[in-house]
Amino acid sequence: MAFNFNWSPLTADAGFYERARDLLTTALNKSPKPPIIVDDIFVTEFNLGSVPPDLEILEIGDLAEDRFRGIFKMCYSGDAFLTLKTRVQANPLNTYLSGKPGFASPEPLSASSSLTIPLQITLSEIKLSAFIIVVFSKQKGLTLVFRNDPLESLKVSSTFDSIPFVRDYLQRTIEQKLRDLMMDELPAIIHRLSLQIWCPDQIIKDDEEQSKETVDHTVNPLSTPPLDAVDAEGHLLDPAAISELSLEAGTETQSLFSQKSLFKLSSLTSTQETSSLFTPSIKEVMYRAWAGPSDRVDTTNTPGPATPSLHRTTSYTNGTAHTYTFSDTASQDQGHLPSRPSMVSLNSATAGLSLGSGRHSKAGRKKKTRVVNLRGKTSSEGGSDAGESSATASTSTAPASEPIMSHPILEVPEEEMPTNTNKVRFGAAHPRRPSFRGDREPASETVPSIEINAPNTTQKQPSRQPSPVDMKVPADWSRPRAPSEISPSVILEQAWVMKMAGEIARRVYDEKNRNPQFWEERDDTPPPAYQPRP
Amino acid sequence: MREFMQYVRNAFYGATGWSEDNSYKDLNVTARELIDFPLPRGIRLSLSSLATPHFATSYQLCNVGVVDGSISYLHSSVPLTAVPAQSDKIPLGALMRSYRGLHQLGSRGGTPWSWETGPQTGTIPQVPAVAEMDRIPNKDKSSLLYGRLYLPQSLLEAMVIKRFSSALQVQISAVSEQSLRNGGTMLSVVQYDRGNYGVEGLYSTDGGLLGLRGLYNFGGDASVATMGSPNGTGSLESTEKERIYGRFSAGGEMYYGTLNKSGGMSLGARFATLPTHKGTPLTATLTINPLMGNINTTYAVLAKDFLAMATRMEFNAYSYESDWAVGLEFWSNRRPAGFLLGAEPSLDLESDQSEPPRKKERSFQAKMEWRLDDPEPEPAKIIEKPTGSKEEYLGVFKARLSSNLNLGLVWEGRAKSLIFSLGTGVDLQRLGEPFRSLGLEVQYSS
């Protein structure tokens, strides 16, 4: 396979420079100019030079007839140059007065008289060095993103070169402007142009999707590495990495969620921390108060701390459900996260975390299948929960363990909340897991172990690896879903889930074999009954 | 055409005896108004009223593509009783006359200036007569408050003028609007006027601009007035003796923006004939901006009582850019066709003028002041003359032409009790589509 880049034919085209000059001139004069520029900006000279940029292919992620994704390294130190001509207002008072209301103007008599000076700016010796991510698909056009600041250096020469102050100022300003242009505007321009060429009908429609896609790109590389590292070593998550992760997701949350629902969620959380009697109602939220009779026994036993934590987590999980519908890519990477809160609420925080970490390594690898109907999942989840809850209730260990767990519970959601938004896929597995646990292990055994572990759960959480229960998850997981959802996306997802689950199970098994004593010591108490009302 | 509120403000200046002659800002105001008169745009209706002698309101409705308007209120601590505010009685000169002659120098030097003492043959078109001005108890402590709200934009203008003494006045104006930086801007000006010189200091919150400008009068009556008696007749005699009928003024301005570290300055000089001048009144100014190399000269002349002309030339010594503009103002006593339907506003005017007959002689003279614009050399002559010839002006035609061949035409006048302003801007460089703007303003006040 070979790529052929033509540099000289581009410049050999006689009409090319003229067209480019016209394009640039109109583009520069389109937006309203600052008052200091009193004339149109003309691009008088424009030359791409004879030295082509060096391109180095770093990675090609996806290659097909209609799509391409790759990362390049580009270096350019050619002889391209650009000359602009305009006229500027040299009297600072004149520009000061422009745009000011006349009523409160000092009305200088002649001190504001104009002095316009022709200005010629030449940009030359442009040095670029950048990592470029190129994503192309026939449907969505071409997206080109710079991963770093491409501009290394630039020489600005102007009419005012003899005045060092002005020269430095121009150099600074133009460099800054150019950086902004390359980082922000250029990708947008290129994308728009590509849309015009390949899919003119989608120009408007695709804009949103495109932005989403770029978001994905920015999120993926950042979030994946730290998570993988954790998995392989089975150690703590690096706190810095976590915070970075959560920050990333947090900003995304802001853009993806409506402020209104975020506000509702936060108010819901805060009501649990105060003595407010008012609880805002949120759609599609499973409240503890709705839980079945067996659950209520729990709540009566441990009324204080347990309830708030439960409310919190439920609200978060719900949030994840929403996110998921928006961006599926991100959810894969962090698919374990929703599981965390739910696990926590179920009193088995440690299991939840370890499970999540185990899974999510897989998630990072597999990216392209992501059509999941979250709603359906939650409902199936709910159904399985119902079954579980009865089982756990019978064990009667839940009430005892619950208060102990409440402390870590309170912490975990806060840490994970932002990331939380993205993961959905694996959430379904957890509620189900306890039921297996209940079948396999006697309840009495689990209770004491949990009590011991509870205080340092936060420490141990990451290090723990998925319990044997997880192995069973895949088989059980797909079962309830199949009848309820028949859409192709679901089938696809099922297949993927199966694959994922198998992988997870294998990993877990390996891990367990590696240090068996660890796994024995760790134990999940039967989760508290948790039955959402459909 | 000046707006009603500006007319009232000028009336306030007249009532308190403040003249803007000694402001460097207004050094070339005559030529500026003859050339840079505003062209009406779209349709604008204003409804104004001087409801009480202290309080004035004005409502304005404009339609330039979009409909907007403004509400303004004004309060003056000085009763503006003798100021004609009805639109059928407002002296047109006070609203439309551009040529601004010099005031009597030292009118508020030490003794309060009154209409009786000075012969005041000059033209004071902007200052309506306030007959009993010397009776105003504390005009040295007078103040004026003005506010205006532009409605859809919610732009607020406010102005406070406060006199602290006969020579010291503070003027604060502010604009508040969301789009402005910091939400608004405020300008405060301290004006100190000692007759033969005036100094102004200003500070603007926008960029922390500090400014200082001053004007010094010499020659003509200025030198005489300082040595002679402040009595008007005395100065008149002495000027006649010396055969100097003009006044020289020189001044400068300096600005420095404390926040943006930029500044500017200019120097200027003016020669204007005195009201006692027998020939054609003229005003010539020269301003120089040495920093920017800008030289600006204006020349305005009141060729006839009904005709004033002005030219302005600009040249930049650094960039060799030049500019010129000419403007003229032609008063007409003919009725604008189709507007006057039999009513004789001039007759109304005369009856109105004779209406406040408390001091017959004085009010008559006062009428002269703002009605009669030509510089009649002898007051006695004016008194002898019947007023009929002066009251005939029913409208004024203004035109200007600038170097980029932009022509501005305005007809302003009174029809019945409405004051009209109809104007258009014509671009002579594009004769295919010459009309750049077209506008009509209608003003009614009561």
UniProtKB/TrEMBL annotation, chain A:
<protein>
    <recommendedName>
        <fullName>Mitochondrial distribution and morphology protein 34</fullName>
    </recommendedName>
</protein>
<comment type="function">
    <text>Component of the ERMES/MDM complex, which serves as a molecular tether to connect the endoplasmic reticulum (ER) and mitochondria. Components of this complex are involved in the control of mitochondrial shape and protein biogenesis, and function in nonvesicular lipid trafficking between the ER and mitochondria. MDM34 is required for the interaction of the ER-resident membrane protein MMM1 and the outer mitochondrial membrane-resident beta-barrel protein MDM10.</text>
</comment>
<feature type="compositionally biased region" description="Basic residues">
    <location>
        <begin position="359"/>
        <end position="370"/>
    </location>
</feature>
<keyword id="KW-0812">Transmembrane</keyword>
<dbReference type="GO" id="GO:0008289">
    <property type="term" value="F:lipid binding"/>
</dbReference>
<dbReference type="InterPro" id="IPR027536">
    <property type="entry name" value="MDM34"/>
</dbReference>
<dbReference type="InterPro" id="IPR058825">
    <property type="entry name" value="MDM34_N"/>
</dbReference>
<feature type="compositionally biased region" description="Polar residues">
    <location>
        <begin position="454"/>
        <end position="466"/>
    </location>
</feature>
<keyword id="KW-1000">Mitochondrion outer membrane</keyword>
<keyword id="KW-0446">Lipid-binding</keyword>
<feature type="domain" description="SMP-LTD">
    <location>
        <begin position="1"/>
        <end position="195"/>
    </location>
</feature>
<keyword id="KW-0445">Lipid transport</keyword>
<feature type="compositionally biased region" description="Polar residues">
    <location>
        <begin position="299"/>
        <end position="323"/>
    </location>
</feature>
<comment type="subunit">
    <text>Component of the ER-mitochondria encounter structure (ERMES) or MDM complex, composed of MMM1, MDM10, MDM12 and MDM34.</text>
</comment>
<keyword id="KW-0472">Membrane</keyword>
<feature type="region of interest" description="Disordered">
    <location>
        <begin position="294"/>
        <end position="323"/>
    </location>
</feature>
<feature type="region of interest" description="Disordered">
    <location>
        <begin position="509"/>
        <end position="534"/>
    </location>
</feature>
<keyword id="KW-0813">Transport</keyword>
<feature type="compositionally biased region" description="Low complexity">
    <location>
        <begin position="379"/>
        <end position="402"/>
    </location>
</feature>
<dbReference type="GO" id="GO:1990456">
    <property type="term" value="P:mitochondrion-endoplasmic reticulum membrane tethering"/>
</dbReference>
<dbReference type="InterPro" id="IPR031468">
    <property type="entry name" value="SMP_LBD"/>
</dbReference>
<dbReference type="Pfam" id="PF26545">
    <property type="entry name" value="Mdm34_N"/>
</dbReference>
Automatic annotation (TrEMBL), chain B:
<dbReference type="GO" id="GO:0045040">
    <property type="term" value="P:protein insertion into mitochondrial outer membrane"/>
</dbReference>
<keyword id="KW-0496">Mitochondrion</keyword>
<keyword id="KW-0812">Transmembrane</keyword>
<dbReference type="GO" id="GO:0032865">
    <property type="term" value="C:ERMES complex"/>
</dbReference>
<keyword id="KW-0472">Membrane</keyword>
<protein>
    <recommendedName>
        <fullName>Mitochondrial distribution and morphology protein 10</fullName>
    </recommendedName>
</protein>
<keyword id="KW-1000">Mitochondrion outer membrane</keyword>
<comment type="function">
    <text>Component of the ERMES/MDM complex, which serves as a molecular tether to connect the endoplasmic reticulum and mitochondria. Components of this complex are involved in the control of mitochondrial shape and protein biogenesis and may function in phospholipid exchange. MDM10 is involved in the late assembly steps of the general translocase of the mitochondrial outer membrane (TOM complex). Functions in the TOM40-specific route of the assembly of outer membrane beta-barrel proteins, including the association of TOM40 with the receptor TOM22 and small TOM proteins.</text>
</comment>
<dbReference type="GO" id="GO:0070096">
    <property type="term" value="P:mitochondrial outer membrane translocase complex assembly"/>
</dbReference>
<dbReference type="GO" id="GO:0001401">
    <property type="term" value="C:SAM complex"/>
</dbReference>
<dbReference type="Pfam" id="PF12519">
    <property type="entry name" value="MDM10"/>
</dbReference>
<dbReference type="GO" id="GO:1990456">
    <property type="term" value="P:mitochondrion-endoplasmic reticulum membrane tethering"/>
</dbReference>
<dbReference type="GO" id="GO:0051654">
    <property type="term" value="P:establishment of mitochondrion localization"/>
</dbReference>
<comment type="similarity">
    <text>Belongs to the MDM10 family.</text>
</comment>
<keyword id="KW-1134">Transmembrane beta strand</keyword>
<comment type="subunit">
    <text>Component of the ER-mitochondria encounter structure (ERMES) or MDM complex, composed of MMM1, MDM10, MDM12 and MDM34. Associates with the mitochondrial outer membrane sorting assembly machinery SAM(core) complex.</text>
</comment>
<dbReference type="GO" id="GO:0015914">
    <property type="term" value="P:phospholipid transport"/>
</dbReference>
<dbReference type="InterPro" id="IPR027539">
    <property type="entry name" value="Mdm10"/>
</dbReference>
